[in-house]
Design goal:
Layout lengths: L14 H21 L20 H51 L3 E5 L9 H12 L10 E6 L12 E5 L2 H9 L10 E4 L3 H12 L4 E7 L2 E6 L5 E4 L3 H5 L4
Antiparallel strand pairs: 1-3, 1-4, 2-3, 5-6, 6-7
Length: about 250
């Protein structure tokens, strides 16, 4: 015996509630079929979920507009933050330059002398004094012109001699020695200004790492480089100066 096609419908806003109601209806159908000795053809039984989509397109458009607006606001905030970062980087660079300048200024009376073998119980003042009088030909030089003198840093593990740092009592005494240092050519000795670590690196790059630099030198801790292409002179303050002045 066959029955006509039959459908069961239910509606609701919650999927779980709809499922419970349908299951209850199916249970009632099963009881009725058993009571009437009928069989449900499961192969021809299907279910369908119908969802009302009216207004969905408008919702999608509204959400897209909100996302576009949020993206614009986010981009504006990113631009503001990028400007803040740039300003902070510029301030940090200025502070770093100022700190380096102050440190270099504190060394304005200093020189570094290299070439003296290290000895136990050595008298560095006598060594430097003898070098100044006999090799630099400064007969009026006196150890009394020296304020402080010592080897730089801790003893080296490779056995090499450390440089001697000399602090003079006046800037004039320092200049007298520096102006005579060209007499050290063909000797094991060298005399240089006492540069900060940053200025040492800048000076090293200017002397060895720039193809468009014909010469580099220091004056009172300031670094100068002559551009090979046109002989212009530049004061090197920061690493970006090499690119800015086309020295690389």
């Amino acid at each position: 015996m066959f029955a006509d096609d039959t459908q069961i419908e239910t509606a609701g806003y919650d999927v779980n509630t709809v499922a419970e109601e349908l299951n209850q209806d199916l249970e009632n159908v099963s009881v009725w079929l058993s009571a009437n000795k009928l069989t449900l053809n499961k192969t021809k039984t299907e279910y369908m979920i119908i969802v009302e989509v009216s207004g969905l397109k408008d919702t999608i458009v509204r959400v897209e507009d909100e996302l576009i607006e949020a993206k614009q606001l986010l981009n504006e905030k990113v631009v503001v933050l990028q400007n803040v970062i740039v300003n902070l980087e510029e301030k940090v660079a200025r502070f770093a330059t100022k700190a380096n300048d102050n440190e270099q200024y504190s060394r304005r009376y200093n020189i570094r002398v290299s070439g003296f073998p290290e000895e136990s119980d050595e008298n560095c003042s006598l060594k430097v004094g003898q070098l100044c009088r006999e090799t630099l030909m400064l007969p009026d030089f006196s150890e009394e012109q020296i304020d402080r003198i010592n080897r730089v840093g801790k003893p080296r593990s490779d056995g090499k001699s450390r440089a001697i740092i000399v602090r003079f009592k006046s800037h004039k005494y320092k200049l007298n020695v520096l102006q005579a240092k060209n007499k050290l050519r063909n000797t094991p000795f060298s005399i240089n200004e006492d540069l900060t670590r940053q200025n040492q690196q800048l000076f090293y790059i200017a002397r060895t790492g720039c193809t468009n630099v014909s010469s580099a030198w220091t004056i009172d801790g300031r670094i100068f480089a002559k551009r090979r292409s046109d002989d212009r002179k530049f004061n090197i303050v920061r690493y970006t100066d090499f690119e800015e002045y086309d020295l690389m």
